[in-house]
Predict the structure.
Amino acid sequence: MRFMVIVKATSDTEAGILPSTEEFAAMGRFNEELVKAGMMEAGEGLHPTAKGARIDFSDGEARVARGPFDFSRDLAAGFWMIKASSLDEVIQHMKRAPFPSGEIEIRQVYAAEDFGEAFEPRLREKEERLRAQAAKS
Amino acid sequence: MRFMMLMIPLGYESAPPDVQLDPERFAAMMRYNEALKDAGVLITLDGLHPPSMGARVSFAGGKPAVTDGPFAEAKEVLGGYWMIEVASRNEAIAWARQCPASENEIIEIRQVQEMADFSEEVQQAAAGFSELPHAGRV
């Protein structure tokens, strides 16, 4: 099973305040543990929403708004992609993440077999080809 | 530059664990994904199960507290994402506008941090660790 661990934005991340060298090193050690456990697929940080944009499709047209955005809306500041055998396994590991405050959200990623009939074999084959090509490029 | 296109489907915050997808919409999204791939901009993409199957860990107060989904207080949740490689934010916006999204959906564009965005001191600290996996850098 694959999981996405979403790190929530805080006033610091939204202000563009980067982690201190010590905090960065602590996160580096935590990431190395995830790698050694064979769980870490990717990990990324995101620039603040002040440098981002939103596209709203609600009126049948794509309206663009520039950031920053109100962070009471659960904005993201970064994420991990994690391989694990259960949600509980991810929770157990992530409880040890070196965060002094803040919140993370853990979500299971869809796999082809989760889609059932909507994902007919022809589409499934296309999707697999698409992933293989994207990974190569 | 790498950008994330975060798909935010309004209403997904209260979707049941066995939420069903519309095959027609699914096929339209697959065609869009193929267009991203054919243009050479797609790095990776994923869809997320509803938050009712997930959990949150809060670190407030220095002690991790776990809450099972769904999250009553959530106004918006993530439904999935694309990671793309483009030359500018405007190019990322142009791609997002072409998405066959529904009226309840919002796409948020965010630039991904690269090591060069951090201070020299932090870069030196990072050099002490083995190369960690990043999306799109195999």
Summary: Residues 2-136 of chain A form a domain with the Alpha-Beta Plaits fold (CATH 3.30.70.1060).
